[in-house]
Design brief:
By secondary structure, the protein is mainly alpha-helical. The protein is globular, with a radius of gyration of 21 Å. The protein starts with a helix and ends in a 27-residue tail after the last helix. It has 17 helices and 5 strands. The strands form 2 sheets. It has a 3-stranded antiparallel beta sheet with strand order 2-1-5. It has a two-stranded antiparallel sheet with strand order 3-4.
């Protein structure tokens, strides 16, 4: 049972801590957004910030809002380095990065998120708010779904809670594909083989059903992000999040040069409008999900990003996906011409061949994640996705229909697209 008084007290302390930082280094709009995120976290069934140091969670909240709004980009105003946030709150940069990643995982946050974007960031969005408005559907779906689930604990284990000692091995987040459990596991050491393929020192066992095979236990999105941070930190000193910051800064600079190039001028006006979102989104997902900074942009990683990650993650109009191939092709042509990336010419040739497959994958419901599935179903019935009460009612009705479907067995994949068995997802309350 929740200790409501304790939650309220810690919530107010976190609001005070984040407000103090924003008043000193940022502005009132950032203060309001940080408070909004803290209070959103406080409404979760398992309130994540009830475990661990308050200063670490306060830093992570500021860091998350900053990441959404390009705060760490020197070309933006205001600008604050990621390390300054950790320094202000007296916690390690690695801890802040890890907790910020947990927050983004909780609510499926991304750049230009409508709920947590500043006015400046929203106005600068190449998609005119399209990403953010629809990404909110994902967050609403997760909030509703998790409140109905009594078994799964969506709050993540806090390494700072019990000890300040270093972990003996690396801890990553996994999902059992058989029973649907998300869990943290110490993998010991990690060896990276060809094309960033990881080999773990220890066997990974699901604590619920004991499954351990490669096909039944796999890294979650958070686990892949954790692995990417470990992989990139092995090559360069510094905080993992700073590595992402450096990648995004470099790609942003390339994008500015690209926008003044003859390769850019060959694009249609629609493709030009989409170009920043396409390039920055590609760079972010390649780094965060596929452990591939620009030097490791391989044909295989690019294909996985364009055919699986982007279509499954991003909810956008067809024009966006129609633009992915030509925009990235022109961008790679520019990088090849300027000799920025040795493999750029090869990437350009291959991505142009993927155009039809990208568009087809984005339109195929079997390629979508649960957020995209739910959002599309809502809009097809005329539900206003910006009306939270209306959308919540739709979710409840949608889940009831899933439960009542005679075509779905308890051990079948849930029709909501979560990837879990029906009895572990939408069919749980009806089981």
């Amino acid at each position: 049972m929740k200790d409501k008084k304790a939650i309220e007290e810690r919530t107010e302390r976190l609001v005070t801590l984040t407000a103090a930082f924003c008043e000193e280094h940022l502005n009132d709009e950032y203060r309001q957004l940080c408070e909004k995120l803290v209070r959103k976290m406080a409404r979760k069934k398992n309130v994540p910030f009830m475990r661990g140091k308050e200063e670490a969670w306060a830093a992570a909240v500021v860091h998350t809002i900053g990441r959404i709004n390009f705060l760490f980009d020197r070309k933006t105003e205001p600008y604050v380095p990621a390390g300054k946030i950790a320094e202000h709150f007296g916690v390690s940069k690695a801890t802040v990065s890890r907790k910020a990643g947990q927050i983004c995982e909780m609510f499926d946050l991304w750049y230009w998120d409508s709920e947590f974007s500043t006015n400046q960031s929203r106005e600068g969005s190449p998609l005119g708010g399209l990403f953010g408005a629809l990404s909110g559907l994902s967050k609403m779906h997760h909030d509703i779904d998790e409140d109905d689930d009594e078994d799964e604990d969506w709050s993540l284990a806090d390494p700072d809670e019990d000890s300040d000692e270093e972990e003996e091995g690396y801890v990553l987040n996994f999902e059992c594909n058989k029973c649907g459990l998300h869990f943290d596991s110490d993998v010991g050491g990690i060896a990276f083989l060809k094309e960033d393929l990881p080999m773990f020192e220890k066997e990974i066992d699901c604590p619920e059903c004991g499954e351990r095979s490669d096909g039944d236990v796999s890294l979650t999105k958070l686990g892949r992000t954790q692995l990417a941070e470990i992989y990139n930190s092995d090559d360069e000193d510094g905080d993992p999040d700073e590595q992402l910051e450096k990648v995004m800064e470099r790609v942003y600079g390339w994008g500015l040069e690209f926008s003044k190039s003859p390769h850019y001028e060959k694009l249609t006006e629609t493709q030009k409008d989409m170009s920043q979102a396409v390039v920055m989104g590609f760079a972010d997902f390649m780094h965060s999900f596929l452990m591939s900074p620009p030097e490791r942009w391989t044909i295989g990683a690019m294909e996985a990003c364009c055919l699986q990650v982007l279509p499954g993650k991003i909810i956008a109009e067809p024009d966006y996906f129609e633009a992915v191939s030509p925009v990235l092709g022109a961008f790679f042509d520019h990088l090849a011409h300027e000799k920025k990336l040795p493999q750029a010419a090869e990437l350009s040739r291959h991505v142009r061949e993927l155009h039809d497959d990208i568009v087809r994958s984005a339109a195929d419901p079997n390629s979508w994640g649960p957020s995209k599935t739910i959002a599309t179903a809502a809009m097809e019935t005329g539900v206003d996705p910006t009306d939270e009460k209306q959308f919540e009612s739709f979710i409840e009705e949608y889940n009831r229909k899933c439960e009542g479907s005679k075509k779905v067995g308890r051990n079948d994949p849930c029709p909501c697209g979560s990837g879990k068995k029906f009895k572990k997802c939408c069919g749980k309350t009806g089981g």
